[in-house]
Amino acid sequence: MKAIARLNLDKLIDKGLNYPLVLIVAAPGSGKSTSLNQWVDRYAISEDEKALKVIHFVAADKFNQGDLLFEHIFQQLSAITPLWEASFFKLFKSDQEADAATLIDIFIQGFDQIAHPIAIAIDDFHHIKSKRILDIFNGLISRLPAHITFVFASRNHPDLSISKFKLEERVLVIDGNDLKLSEEELSSLNQLLCDSKIDELRLQIL
Predict the structure, then answer these.
(1) Are β-strands 21-25 and 53-58 bridged in parallel, bridged antiparallel, or unpaired?
(2) pLDDT tens-digit map of 20-39
Protein backbone atom coordinates (compact mmCIF):
# COMPACT_ATOMS: atom_id res chain seq x y z
CA MET A 1 0.00 0.00 0.00
CA LYS A 2 1.39 3.37 -1.01
CA ALA A 3 1.45 6.05 1.67
CA ILE A 4 3.22 9.31 2.33
CA ALA A 5 5.01 10.21 5.54
CA ARG A 6 2.83 12.24 7.91
CA LEU A 7 5.58 13.87 9.96
CA ASN A 8 3.30 16.48 11.53
CA LEU A 9 0.96 13.76 12.74
CA ASP A 10 3.91 11.80 14.09
CA LYS A 11 4.91 14.86 16.10
CA LEU A 12 1.35 15.32 17.34
CA ILE A 13 1.12 11.72 18.57
CA ASP A 14 4.57 12.14 20.15
CA LYS A 15 3.21 15.19 21.98
CA GLY A 16 0.44 12.94 23.30
CA LEU A 17 3.01 10.81 25.11
CA ASN A 18 2.90 13.53 27.79
CA TYR A 19 -0.70 12.46 28.46
CA PRO A 20 -2.15 9.17 29.75
CA LEU A 21 -4.42 8.97 26.68
CA VAL A 22 -4.14 9.91 23.01
CA LEU A 23 -7.51 9.63 21.27
CA ILE A 24 -7.47 9.67 17.47
CA VAL A 25 -11.11 10.02 16.45
CA ALA A 26 -12.37 10.56 12.90
CA ALA A 27 -14.62 9.09 10.23
CA PRO A 28 -13.70 5.96 8.23
CA GLY A 29 -11.20 6.65 5.47
CA SER A 30 -9.68 9.68 7.19
CA GLY A 31 -6.27 8.05 7.64
CA LYS A 32 -6.40 7.05 11.31
CA SER A 33 -5.03 3.55 10.86
CA THR A 34 -2.40 4.54 8.31
CA SER A 35 -1.11 7.34 10.52
CA LEU A 36 -1.08 5.12 13.60
CA ASN A 37 0.72 2.33 11.73
CA GLN A 38 3.39 4.74 10.47
CA TRP A 39 3.93 6.09 13.98
CA VAL A 40 4.20 2.57 15.44
CA ASP A 41 6.62 1.47 12.70
CA ARG A 42 8.92 4.40 13.46
CA TYR A 43 9.48 3.14 17.00
CA ALA A 44 9.64 -0.52 16.00
CA ILE A 45 13.00 -0.01 14.28
CA SER A 46 14.66 1.66 17.29
CA GLU A 47 17.41 -0.38 18.95
CA ASP A 48 17.70 1.94 21.95
CA GLU A 49 16.72 -0.06 25.04
CA LYS A 50 15.54 3.12 26.76
CA ALA A 51 13.40 4.24 23.82
CA LEU A 52 9.63 4.06 23.78
CA LYS A 53 8.29 0.55 23.28
CA VAL A 54 4.93 0.17 21.58
CA ILE A 55 2.42 -2.64 21.59
CA HIS A 56 -0.13 -2.35 18.82
CA PHE A 57 -3.17 -4.38 17.87
CA VAL A 58 -6.62 -4.00 16.33
CA ALA A 59 -9.71 -4.25 18.52
CA ALA A 60 -12.57 -6.58 17.61
CA ASP A 61 -15.99 -7.45 19.00
CA LYS A 62 -14.57 -10.52 20.74
CA PHE A 63 -12.63 -8.27 23.11
CA ASN A 64 -15.90 -7.29 24.80
CA GLN A 65 -16.03 -10.77 26.33
CA GLY A 66 -14.79 -11.14 29.89
CA ASP A 67 -11.15 -10.17 30.44
CA LEU A 68 -9.96 -11.18 26.96
CA LEU A 69 -8.84 -7.66 26.07
CA PHE A 70 -6.77 -7.19 29.23
CA GLU A 71 -5.31 -10.68 28.93
CA HIS A 72 -4.26 -9.79 25.37
CA ILE A 73 -2.61 -6.56 26.61
CA PHE A 74 -0.81 -8.57 29.29
CA GLN A 75 0.47 -11.08 26.71
CA GLN A 76 1.65 -8.29 24.42
CA LEU A 77 3.43 -6.55 27.28
CA SER A 78 5.12 -9.75 28.44
CA ALA A 79 6.68 -10.08 24.98
CA ILE A 80 8.54 -6.77 25.26
CA THR A 81 9.25 -6.28 28.95
CA PRO A 82 9.89 -8.51 31.98
CA LEU A 83 6.64 -9.10 33.84
CA TRP A 84 5.86 -8.66 36.95
CA GLU A 85 4.54 -10.53 39.94
CA ALA A 86 2.67 -13.77 40.54
CA SER A 87 -0.65 -11.99 41.05
CA PHE A 88 -0.64 -11.06 37.36
CA PHE A 89 -0.29 -14.64 36.22
CA LYS A 90 -3.12 -15.75 38.53
CA LEU A 91 -5.39 -12.98 37.30
CA PHE A 92 -6.39 -14.67 34.05
CA LYS A 93 -6.37 -18.31 35.20
CA SER A 94 -10.03 -18.29 36.24
CA ASP A 95 -12.94 -18.47 33.79
CA GLN A 96 -14.65 -15.76 35.81
CA GLU A 97 -14.12 -12.04 35.27
CA ALA A 98 -11.58 -10.50 37.62
CA ASP A 99 -12.74 -7.93 40.11
CA ALA A 100 -12.40 -4.60 38.27
CA ALA A 101 -10.67 -2.77 41.14
CA THR A 102 -8.21 -5.64 41.59
CA LEU A 103 -7.43 -5.73 37.86
CA ILE A 104 -6.75 -1.97 37.85
CA ASP A 105 -4.53 -2.20 40.93
CA ILE A 106 -2.43 -5.05 39.53
CA PHE A 107 -1.94 -3.33 36.16
CA ILE A 108 -0.89 -0.09 37.88
CA GLN A 109 1.53 -1.99 40.13
CA GLY A 110 3.01 -3.65 37.06
CA PHE A 111 3.32 -0.39 35.13
CA ASP A 112 5.11 1.18 38.10
CA GLN A 113 7.79 -1.51 37.85
CA ILE A 114 8.57 -0.87 34.18
CA ALA A 115 11.62 1.33 33.72
CA HIS A 116 11.13 2.47 30.11
CA PRO A 117 8.22 4.32 28.44
CA ILE A 118 5.47 2.24 26.86
CA ALA A 119 2.58 3.11 24.56
CA ILE A 120 -0.35 0.71 24.21
CA ALA A 121 -1.91 1.48 20.82
CA ILE A 122 -5.34 0.00 20.02
CA ASP A 123 -6.82 0.59 16.58
CA ASP A 124 -10.58 0.31 15.82
CA PHE A 125 -11.35 1.05 19.47
CA HIS A 126 -14.98 1.76 18.48
CA HIS A 127 -15.53 -2.02 18.71
CA ILE A 128 -15.11 -1.80 22.50
CA LYS A 129 -18.59 -1.25 23.91
CA SER A 130 -18.60 -3.18 27.20
CA LYS A 131 -19.38 -0.76 30.05
CA ARG A 132 -17.25 -2.81 32.45
CA ILE A 133 -14.22 -2.69 30.15
CA LEU A 134 -14.62 1.04 29.48
CA ASP A 135 -14.95 1.68 33.23
CA ILE A 136 -11.71 -0.24 33.80
CA PHE A 137 -9.98 1.92 31.19
CA ASN A 138 -11.33 5.02 32.96
CA GLY A 139 -9.78 3.75 36.18
CA LEU A 140 -6.46 2.96 34.53
CA ILE A 141 -6.24 6.30 32.68
CA SER A 142 -6.92 8.15 35.96
CA ARG A 143 -3.94 6.43 37.60
CA LEU A 144 -1.39 5.73 34.86
CA PRO A 145 2.23 6.59 35.70
CA ALA A 146 3.78 9.26 33.49
CA HIS A 147 5.75 6.82 31.29
CA ILE A 148 2.68 4.83 30.17
CA THR A 149 0.28 6.06 27.46
CA PHE A 150 -2.78 4.54 25.82
CA VAL A 151 -3.29 5.47 22.14
CA PHE A 152 -6.80 4.70 20.86
CA ALA A 153 -7.94 5.16 17.25
CA SER A 154 -11.71 5.15 16.86
CA ARG A 155 -14.45 6.09 14.39
CA ASN A 156 -16.37 7.78 17.20
CA HIS A 157 -15.84 9.04 20.71
CA PRO A 158 -15.75 6.01 23.03
CA ASP A 159 -17.87 6.09 26.16
CA LEU A 160 -14.94 7.12 28.33
CA SER A 161 -14.73 10.09 30.71
CA ILE A 162 -13.27 12.29 27.96
CA SER A 163 -14.66 15.61 29.30
CA LYS A 164 -13.23 14.86 32.74
CA PHE A 165 -9.89 13.83 31.24
CA LYS A 166 -9.76 17.06 29.22
CA LEU A 167 -10.27 19.13 32.37
CA GLU A 168 -7.54 17.14 34.11
CA GLU A 169 -5.24 17.37 31.04
CA ARG A 170 -5.16 13.58 30.77
CA VAL A 171 -6.08 13.32 27.10
CA LEU A 172 -4.89 14.68 23.77
CA VAL A 173 -7.61 14.42 21.13
CA ILE A 174 -6.56 14.21 17.46
CA ASP A 175 -9.56 14.67 15.18
CA GLY A 176 -10.47 14.85 11.50
CA ASN A 177 -9.08 18.37 11.14
CA ASP A 178 -5.67 17.22 12.36
CA LEU A 179 -5.77 14.30 9.90
CA LYS A 180 -6.39 16.48 6.84
CA LEU A 181 -3.56 16.50 4.33
CA SER A 182 -1.55 19.70 4.04
CA GLU A 183 -0.81 21.18 0.61
CA GLU A 184 2.70 19.73 0.76
CA GLU A 185 1.32 16.29 1.66
CA LEU A 186 -1.28 16.46 -1.13
CA SER A 187 1.45 17.31 -3.60
CA SER A 188 3.59 14.40 -2.33
CA LEU A 189 0.63 12.01 -2.54
CA ASN A 190 -0.13 13.04 -6.12
CA GLN A 191 3.52 12.54 -7.06
CA LEU A 192 3.47 9.10 -5.43
CA LEU A 193 0.23 7.93 -7.06
CA CYS A 194 0.39 9.65 -10.43
CA ASP A 195 4.10 10.27 -10.83
CA SER A 196 3.39 13.87 -11.73
CA LYS A 197 3.33 17.26 -10.07
CA ILE A 198 -0.07 18.76 -9.30
CA ASP A 199 -0.66 22.32 -10.48
CA GLU A 200 -1.06 25.07 -7.86
CA LEU A 201 -4.66 25.95 -8.78
CA ARG A 202 -5.91 22.38 -8.38
CA LEU A 203 -3.91 22.05 -5.15
CA GLN A 204 -5.68 25.08 -3.68
CA ILE A 205 -9.09 23.67 -4.71
CA LEU A 206 -8.32 20.36 -3.00
Answers:
(1) unpaired
(2) 999 999 999 888 999 999 99
